[in-house]
Design brief:
This protein is of the alpha+beta class and 528 residues long. It folds into 2 domains: 99 residues, no CATH class; 354 residues, no CATH class. It contains 12 helices and 21 strands. The strands form 5 sheets. It has an 8-stranded mixed sheet with strand order 6-7-8-9-14-17-18-19, with helices on both faces. Strands 1-2-3-4-5 form a 5-stranded antiparallel sheet. A hairpin with a 4-residue loop joins strand 2 and strand 3. Helix 1 crosses helix 4 and helix 7 packs across helix 12. The longest helix has 46 residues. The radius of gyration is 31 Å and the shape is elongated.
């Protein structure tokens, strides 16, 4: 056999080198694959460990926690997908889809020094909801391991300690506490209302040095009404700023209006102090046609005529100039008594005739509901008489609308707390009442009776709100701004309305405490 030539030797050497390099490359790839598989297993194990430190949060619970957190543009910019928290709900988070870029992200929130959930961390540009969810749960776990949660949520714009509307200062005489405040704090079944108040209170109380004491003592109803209004406006998507006067400035892109809250309180002197106790249908009719319009009129006219030290009305102040101005009224002049309903359950039917100076009469003719507006000249009770038609009074053209609800009560806060998962153990919460009937021939609402704790039960803060537009308004309130509310108009001697199907005219809430053995159930009923 002839010896290999030089060319053949070089060829064999080159081939051997290629094979050697190939073997080295293959071994490197295998090592990289093994390392990658190891890293994948490590990440999978880490994700499994992280998942043990977080849990899914219901949307209702997240919404209560963050009622004051979202800006009005949030719903426009992002689609909210799922909510999460650590096991103790010290930090919470949201997975979202960016509507403009069509990608995904998450945000993490922690409590600030006032006790409010605020933004602390965020990631975006994730390619899928799953990636964003894994990222959020990982962030929750790493935050728990590495962060000081007491300082994490601090924003630098809050007071140094949490605000708790339910904590009574040692300086306050217990005898001066309002009876309904004591009911809120001392009744076991009021745990859901307490949870709701604790979440909402820190958003209002820090800017008003008198809020806490007035809520606990002499002005419980008025302050609860303000808490309710703030919650309803926030739920409707507005940014809400608390003012010295009027109470609120509400805004959103292209929207701005102000609101002053007032309540109908018991009369201590004068003709209206002799509160009637109507029993027959005729007595109830007279009560709603005369006594209650005068009660509403007293509160509304007081706000209409009020001026500050510079002689300015509400609508003449810097914060309110050239904006729609709204008066928000609730009836607290007579609370519920044993086996009797509170006044706010049914007195809303007296407000419309007073505001527009007309009452509605109706009859059924050939199966059709026929209505007509009849002019009221005045309302009289005892020796006192007032003109009808608040919107026709001098200066009332500066009031764009009157807002009303009969739901600014502890019962409402209880129900919203129950929906958010804060029901008290061994208690039941049942609601019954009338919802709007869309049948054009209906003369009353649709009766309902529901278990508030049932997973299918749905309720919003603004479900009972009614807005009465002023036909003479100098600056009308655009009805699209408050879509979803019951809205009422009166034009050319005719009344018409826009009412959503979910609107609740009136309801009662029964709080039932379950006791063991053969002991009887104990319950209390409150209006909503």
């Amino acid at each position: 056999m002839r010896p290999p030539s030089a060319v053949e030797l070089r060829t064999r050497e080159a081939t051997t080198a290629v094979r050697h390099r190939f073997m080295l490359t293959s071994e490197s790839i295998i090592r990289i694959q093994e390392q990658s598989m190891g890293e994948g297993k490590r990440k999978k194990k880490q994700r499994q460990e992280d998942s043990l430190l977080s849990k899914r949060l219901s949307r209702a619970r997240f919404d209560l926690y963050t009622l004051g957190t979202r800006h009005s543009m949030a719903r426009v910019l992002a689609q909210e997908l799922s909510c999460w928290s650590d096991l103790d709900e010290q930090i919470i988070g949201l997975v979202f889809r960016d509507r403009q870029d069509d990608d995904y992200g998450w945000i993490l929130l922690a409590r600030d020094r006032a006790g409010r959930f605020r933004w602390v961390k965020m990631e975006h540009s994730k390619r899928s909801e799953d990636y964003a969810t894994v990222g959020l749960r990982s962030a929750i776990a790493s935050t728990l391991r590495t962060e000081n949660l007491a300082e994490l949520g601090s924003q630098g714009d809050e007071p140094n300690e949490p605000f708790d509307l339910l904590r009574v200062s040692p300086e306050i005489d217990p005898a001066k506490l309002h009876p309904y405040f004591r009911q809120l704090t001392d009744t076991a079944g009021r745990a859901p209302a307490r949870a709701a108040v604790r979440e909402i209170g820190p958003w209002l109380a820090p800017s008003d040095p008198h809020f806490v004491q007035e809520f606990q003592c002499q002005h419980f109803d008025q302050r609860l009404w303000e808490l309710y209004l703030w919650a309803a406006f926030r739920e409707l998507g507005f940014d809400v700023k608390q003012l010295e006067a009027p109470d609120f400035a509400c805004s959103a892109p292209g929207i701005a209006f102000t609101v002053e809250a007032t309540t109908v309180s018991p009369s201590q002197t004068g003709p209206l102090a002799a509160h009637p106790n109507p029993q027959t249908p005729e007595e109830v009719k007279d009560f709603l046609a005369n006594y209650m319009p005068m009660k509403f009129g007293s509160s509304l006219m007081s706000k209409l005529n009020k001026t500050d030290a510079q002689g300015r009305h509400y609508w003449e102040r810097e914060e309110t100039k050239d904006k729609p101005f709204v008066l928000a009224v609730a009836d607290f002049h007579k609370q519920a008594e044993q086996d009797q309903l509170g006044s706010m359950t049914f007195t809303h039917s007296a407000l419309w005739p007073y505001l527009y100076g007309h009452r509605v009469e109706w009859e059924m003719k050939d199966g059709q509901l026929i209505t007509r507006a009849v002019k009221n000249s005045s309302h009289t009770f005892g020796t006192k008489s007032i003109p009808s038609g608040f919107f026709d009074q001098p200066g009332a053209e500066n009031v764009s609308a009157v807002l009303f609800s009969n739901a600014g009560t502890i019962a409402k806060f209880d129900r919203m707390g129950v929906v958010a998962g804060f029901a008290a153990p061994e208690h039941k919460y049942f609601r019954m009442g009338f919802r709007f009937d869309p049948d054009p021939n209906a003369t009353r609402g649709i009766w309902f009776s529901e278990d508030v704790a049932d997973p299918s039960y749905v309720e919003g803060w603004s479900d009972e709100l009614q807005i009465f537009h002023n036909p003479n308004a100098r600056i009308p309130l655009t009805h699209e701004w408050l879509s979803g509310l019951a809205q009422f108009y009166f034009e050319k001697d005719s009344q018409f309305s826009i009412i959503p199907n979910h609107h609740v005219w009136a309801s009662m809430t029964s709080l039932i405490r379950l006791v063991p053995g053969d002991a009887r159930q104990r319950s209390s009923t409150q209006n909503s």
